[in-house]
# Entry
Amino acid sequence: MASINYQNPNLDQTVRVFDAFYEYDVNVPAAEYDVVNSYFKSTMTTKLAADNFTVSLFKVAEDTKIPALTLLQAFEGVDGMNLNVSMAYYLNSIRNRATLLGVGVPVTANFYAARNVVQ
# Structure
């Protein structure tokens, strides 16, 4: 007898995670995606923010070769601004040093080097 809860193991149980702006595209297990996305939905105020944090976490996981659920454990118990700071830390580890996130102090050039810049 068939059940509506029966899952066909021959079907692909993955979710496509993509970001058109950064041209990022990866397939992740659906169960992992649901766990990560539901965590961020419970801590974020908007669905868009939760979806963006979910994509960012999978991008960090892929680039650092650390499993997504292991990274998610680092975020558990963190809320509000600390969650943003933690995500910025992980994103900065995979970004170019010239484009760091969350840096509040403007970088000023050395006086003598700045003097040689033609405007």
In short: Residues 75 and 86 are 7 Å apart (CA to CA). The chain has one domain: 14-115.
